[in-house]
Design brief:
The complex is a heterodimer.
Chain A: H1 2-10, H2 16-23, H3 27-39, E1 60-68, H4 77-84, E2 89-94, E3 101-107, H5 110-121, E4 127-134, E5 140-141, E6 144-145
Antiparallel strand pairs in A: 1-3, 1-4, 2-3, 5-6
Helix pairs in contact in A: 2-3
Chain B: H1 12-16, H2 21-30, E1 36-37, H3 49-60, H4 73-84, E2 96-99, H5 101-113, E3 119-124, H6 130-136, E4 140-145, H7 156-162, E5 167-172, H8 185-197, E6 201-205, E7 230-235, E8 248-251, H9 254-267, H10 273-285, H11 287-311, E9 323-324, H12 335-346, E10 348-349, E11 351-352, E12 364-367, H13 372-389
Parallel strand pairs in B: 1-10, 3-4, 3-5, 5-6, 6-7
Antiparallel strand pairs in B: 2-8, 7-8, 9-12, 11-12
Helix pairs in contact in B: 3-10, 4-10, 5-6, 5-9, 11-13
The chains are: A alpha+beta, B alpha/beta.
Chain lengths: 159, 399
């Protein structure tokens, strides 16, 4: 099961048949496992990792550090939900350390991101402060290096 | 002197060595563009980053000196510890020698043991340097042909049939280049009995030992009575994707290692310190990287075996290394013809099996140390090539 997940994480376009060949399992068995993993939300979604800059689309990404006061019974969860429901918000993590939530945002312009933080995020009750850091360049994301310069330099034939 | 040809001055032992069959094929492939190569004998991974980083750090600190001839003691200690995990124990101070790749270790091991005229038994198909290096050391290479019917294992019967009073060394390489064959413990025990009975020594090239897929590798020196009859050769090229670092080692009885060290100190002096530092990091912290690479090779192994079956090529299931050795004789072509035409027509490079000695005829070596995408495309092209040619006959003995 873990091997199937690993393969799908590296290439979500692999078919059950291809995975069966790579793992030495039966195709039906692989199909069944994938269906089960999808049903129990172990597999949440299939993504394509795109270098948007290369595709000619300028997007602005930012990391927002959010400090907040926890609420009775629900802790940080309730505020976190109010934040992660916004479609501009790409990911939200509860952190240990200097701040509480790490919020990744995407917008068309810097102004759009800044206004979102000022008008939507900072105004939520229990949010004490925010600090916005704009992403200047992405080198690596989800384990993949964007512009890998390590080409295959092997000779064509070797002993 | 000036009346002689320059070739007259060349040592006859060197002149007798035929040019490498791989070289000729390489020259042909090197001129072409867009070739998918299954002809490579090295990992397609680069050395794991933490190993490279440890080397760069050592350079920044100015670690650029010679080391002791035998190699950094801390590295030898790690090597001894690693071999200990395979149930064979060596004293890192006296019984381990760090060399410039396994190639150097093999050369000096042969030169240390062979007295001109001694016979060296070599199971074939084998790595291309075994026969020439034996000859250069003054030994007589005696080949034992393994076959697909025996899964390219060396059997006790075949070994015993070639033993003579002049037999001195048995040169083993399992998992094997080019076949990918591995030896099971039971057969190795039978071989060990013969080694004892006929007072042979064993050079065990275990460079592919980490790359085994079905079951545990048996270290030959760990078998009863074999530790002091065996020189283990191993290195970092294959398991840790460190081919260009040229770092290997030998382990064996202290008398063998001391004698090998004499040749080593007057030829290589010592292995490069940067590579030794990197190897130290590899042994200490490289296990998870090796495990990941082995898992990848295993998937690709399944992929090529499945692919060959789909396109109608007979191939025994390799248990180790990263090579498959399918039979192509059913196409009516020799291995060399198959490889050459496949390269010219479909731009896929493979190596004809006969360059690896007797027993390799009719087969081609396909390395699966390439990406899944490249392997898939290469198999597709091979299928097209075979379909275009048509199978001349159906061979049923290898199923």
């Amino acid at each position: 099961m873990l091997e199937i997940l690993e393969l799908l994480q590296s290439n979500s376009r692999l078919t059950a048949k291809e995975i069966a060949v790579l793992t030495g399992q039966e195709e039906d068995e692989v199909k069944g496992i994938i269906e089960r993993l999808e049903a129990d939300k172990t597999i949440i979604k299939y993504f394509t990792l795109i270098n948007w800059e290369k595709a000619g689309l300028e997007k602005v990404s930012a990391l927002i550090e959010v400090k907040m006061s926890p609420q009775r019974d629900v802790g940080f969860d309730s505020v976190a939900e109010r934040i992660y429901r916004f479609p501009e918000v790409k990911s939200v993590h509860l952190m240990s350390g200097a701040y509480d939530l790490a919020v990744f945002l995407e917008g068309a312009t810097m102004k759009e991101v800044a206004l979102f933080v000022a008008q939507k995020l900072a105004t939520i009750d229990n949010v004490l402060s925010t600090a916005t850091h704009f992403v200047l360049k992405t080198y690596k994301q989800d384990g993949f290096i964007f512009e890998d310069r390590e080409n295959d330099q092997r000779l064509v034939i070797q002993p | 002197m000036s009346n002689n040809k320059w070739s007259d001055y060349i040592n006859p032992s060197v002149k007798r060595i035929p040019p490498s069959g791989i070289r000729k094929f390489f020259d042909l492939a090197a001129e072409m563009e867009g070739v998918i190569s299954l002809g490579v004998g090295e990992p397609d991974f680069v050395t794991p980053w933490h190993i490279r980083e440890a080397c760069v750090y050592s350079l920044n600190r100015g670690r650029t000196s010679y080391t002791s001839n035998q190699g950094l003691l801390e590295l030898r200690e790690e090597i001894a510890q690693y071999l200990g995990s395979q149930r064979v124990h060596y004293d890192p101070k006296k019984e381990v020698l760090v060399t410039v790749g396994v190639s150097e270790a093999l050369d000096i091991a042969l030169r240390t043991l062979i007295i001109p005229g001694d016979e060296v038994i070599i199971p074939t198909p084998c790595y291309v340097s075994y026969i020439p290096c034996t000859a250069l050391a003054g030994g007589i290479p005696v080949t034992v042909q393994t076959s697909m019917e025996d899964n390219f294992r060396l059997t006790a019967d075949k070994l015993e049939a070639v033993i003579t009073p002049k037999s001195k060394v048995l040169l083993l390489c399992f998992p094997n280049n080019p076949t990918g064959a591995i030896m099971d413990r039971e057969t190795l025990l039978q071989i060990a009995e013969l080694v004892e009975k006929h007072d042979l020594l064993v050079i065990a090239d275990e460079i592919y030992e980490r790359l085994t897929y079905n079951g545990q590798h048996t270290c030959f020196a760990s078998l009863p009575g074999m530790r002091d009859r065996t020189i283990i050769l191993n290195g970092f090229s294959k398991a840790y994707a460190m081919t260009g670092w040229r770092l290997g080692y030998a382990a064996g009885h202290e008398d063998f290692i001391a004698a090998m060290n004499k040749i080593h100190q007057y030829t290589m002096l010592c292995a490069p310190i940067t590579a030794q530092v990197a190897a130290l990091e590899a042994l200490r912290n490289g296990k998870s990287a090796v495990d990941k690479m082995v898992a990848q090779y295993n998937r690709r192994r399944r992929l090529v075996l499945h692919g060959f079956k789909e396109i109608g090529l007979t191939c025994f299931e390799p248990g180790g290394a990263f090579y498959a050795f399918p039979y192509v004789g059913d196409t009516g072509l020799t291995a060399a013809e198959f490889a050459e035409n496949l390269l010219l027509e479909e731009k896929v490079a493979v190596v004809p099996g006969d360059v690896f000695g007797p027993g390799g005829e009719g087969c081609i070596r396909c390395s699966y140390a390439s990406s899944v995408e490249d392997l898939t495309e290469a198999i597709k092209r091979m299928g097209r090539f075979i379909k275009h040619r048509g199978m001349k006959k159906v061979k049923t003995v290898y199923s």
